[in-house]
Amino acid sequence: MINLPVLDDITKILFVLVLATAVLIITVRTLSSLFNIYSVQSWFIAAVAFVMYLKTGSIVLLLLTILTIAGKAFLVPYVMRRIQKSMNMKRDVEFRYLTPIGSILVGTAMIFIVYWSFSKFLPELSSDDLFIFGAVIGVSLALMGMMVIFTRKRMITKILGYLTMENGVLLFSLFIAELPFIIELLIVIDLVMLIVLATVLAFGIDSSIDEFHTKLNSFTLWFKE
Amino acid sequence: MLSFLIYALVNTVFVILISPLFVSLIKKVKAYMQGREGPPLLQTYYLLGKLLKKETVYSGNTSLIIRITPYVNVVCVIAASLFVPVIYIPMSVGGIGNIILFLYLLVCAKFFMALAGLDAGSTFGGMGSSREMTVSAVIEPVIIIVFAALSLLLKTTNLYQMFAISLKSSLFINPSTLLISLSLFIILIVESARIPVDNPETHLELTMIHEAMLLEYSGPDLAMMEISHAIKQTLLMAVLINVLIPWGLTATPGVLSVSISVITFIAKGAVLAIVVGVFESLFAKSRLFRLPNLFMLAFFFSFSTILFELLR
After folding, report:
1. Which residue of chain A has the CA closest to B308?
2. Do B300 and A115 touch (CB under 8 A)?
3. Of A65, A176, B2, B87, which has fewest CB within 10 angstroms of its CB?
């Protein structure tokens, strides 16, 4: 247990960096850079968990740090890169509903709304400003992940959106409701399952949801015969 | 008052002398990244010296504007250089150091440059001016927001006080400094006409913005335009450096402390120039319509700085 004010400041710097990676995930078009950014984001979140461990001394947080690094900074990006290789596709340039510029604007507004709504009741729960900070950044990250899901057309980037959302939930849970470790573990396993499932889907789709229907329709012809 | 005059003289001369070095350094770094030898570090000085010796040629169609623009540009950026202390932080005299005035001085130079581009009536100049103004119309509001966020963060609109405050505090006390620095870096890239916004290497190509406006210039006039561009770049670099890593900058005048400031500034500026060079090499010139994307990033970062400030 170390209680230094510098730990709080380091956490705030990490929040700033997490936010920067989140906005890059919205705008970047090259797939390999997207995976790298996700990996870096996971490193930052692991670092937040580690700093929390130093502060509280809770062993669960240390395990969470190790799990995050192993799972999200190495395993998940590795699997994603393998999927990308087999899909033979380098960039995701298609957007719908919102252009990246629009997404950034909406993202900015979203952070503000989250801050505004949280500032109404969170100060009553805890007076620690880090607590509010973490909650706001966590929820905003989750919402930004959701935005990635609906603005990107390619399946593989949508998966990255889910993963970003999960990172946001993790960050939120670190500060607000401490999830029991076992649930966290299950979430990570779920994630790997999600990616595996998504791979299967992605092979079928190889690119976008719209093409999936035509591909499935060609299969239905078999059953009709 | 006397100490301020000494500051004004030394700071301005130092900024003018150091600016071409950073320009060459960025070129050198880019050359290395492309596997070339690159020009010598003093190349920009030789170039300016050569241009100053040559005669000036004006097109017959031009008016007074093209003749006064180099002087307006140089005067504006030199006046702006008073606002950004790099040798030591003096006491503010008569509103010098005001951030809004600083921005207006830079915009004034830009405005005259755009007018001069139109003046000769050549197609390239007009195109350059039109593009410059289009980009400015989008980036200027973002710049205002970025500097507003900076003022909110450091609780003052005076650049001298800002640097004095950032000198006392650190990244740990003000983590949002990191976010605002990202915005300032984007502004540096945009305002100094670098890739991905503009390509400083090209001439007579359809992609150019800044160079297109200078096509009509020759001789000492061109030298003045080049040096004012270099000074502007150094000033924006200095703002970024003094906000993010002000270590070494001193608040007390004195031979030893000032020389430490000068040496550390050259070192930090060189590092930043290398970063800019590497950044430029990593990206390709982006399409004109995709530029707002970059500006939006700057906007986002400055907006979140404001939000972080509210959260604290």
Report:
1. A133
2. no
3. B2
